[in-house]
Amino acid sequence: MVDKKILDSLNYEDKEQLLEGLGDLIEHSYELENEFKELKIVLTGMIGFFPNALWVIEENGTIIVQNSEAKKIAKLIDFVNKDGEEIEFKEKIYLIKTIYIGEKQIISATDITEQKRAERLASMGKVAAHLSHEIRNPIGAISLLAGTLMNRVKAENKPIVQEIKNSIYRVERIIKSTLLFTKGMQINRRPFSLLKLKNTIEDAYEHYSMSKEIELDINFDDIEFNADFDLLGIVMQNFLYNGIDAIEEDENETGTISFIYRKNGDFDTITVKDSGKEIEDENILYEPFQTTKLKGSGLGLALSLEIIKAHNGKIELLSGEKGFKIWLK
């Protein structure tokens, strides 16, 4: 407010100049307000482009700005306590960073799930490499002794020795799968006949212990594939064993497993179906060391997905029937 005594002491010209100055001040105030609004819009837009979740919070806890990533995990902000902490939220891990500018607090949440997963796998890889070395020595001795024993026991005891050999085969497969998954893989593409892959599946079928009558149907053409034969063999074995385990857990005493090859545009597809127990939890299908089966380590599908991705392919769950479709380019 302008003091009334001062205002009364001014002459007409001074009052005119004062009024003009006040008008300019008000106009500049509007300009500053508009510029502030534009700046806020620009800053909000910039924050929206950030790949991390970002919140700007007043001293009283009111959120004044948040980007689209922050809105996706809005409840996460309720669990933030300190800078540098890691919070597990909705099956993901976020690294929290906090800074203060004046009375305002800026909080960012970075998704580090894959980074933590890589760290865990690296740690597991070291343990797996050590264990595989320690386990393979006695397993090799047992395998050698089982082979010798097979030639010496009576005919009625041979199934027992065969079961020992099958169990050894299973242990070796788990070791190999664990090492592959934790160390990563490099594919070695070479041409081979699809019928060779069929032989691998049939051989794996013969080495797997089962208590039910399971029919194996492999519908493969005699065509040339250009892929990593050993790695695709592991994928086929994993799907075969998953099918056998599902049938073993089913109420029926018999079951079927089928492998069907088809050409689909630029892709080759292999569809695997089984008549076994339905999948209980689709959300953990490809999670390593997660399984709802009585048998298995929970690595089969996770490893298979990594192998197929390395071939620039994909795996999809069939709808309407139990099974998977593998796409290979």
Output the keywords.
329 residues, alpha+beta, single chain, Heat Shock Protein 90, five-stranded antiparallel sheet, Beta-Lactamase, 3 domains, five-stranded mixed sheet, 8 helices
Order of helices and strands: HHEEHEEEHHEHEEHEEHEE
How many beta-strand runs? 12
Gross morphology is elongated
Helical fraction equals 40-55%
Beta-strand level of the residues, as a percent range?
Answer: 15-25%
Helix count, DSSP H or I runs of 4 or more residues: 8
* CATH T-level topology of the largest domain: Heat Shock Protein 90
In the CATH hierarchy, what is the architecture of the largest domain at level 2?
A: 2-Layer Sandwich
Distance between the termini: 78 Å
CATH superfamily of the largest domain: Histidine kinase-like ATPase, C-terminal domain
Widest sheet: strand order?
2-1-5-4-3
Q: How many structural domains?
A: 3
Largest sheet: 5 strands, antiparallel
Whole-number mean pLDDT: 81
Rg estimate, integer Å: 33 Å
- Structural class, by secondary structure, is alpha+beta
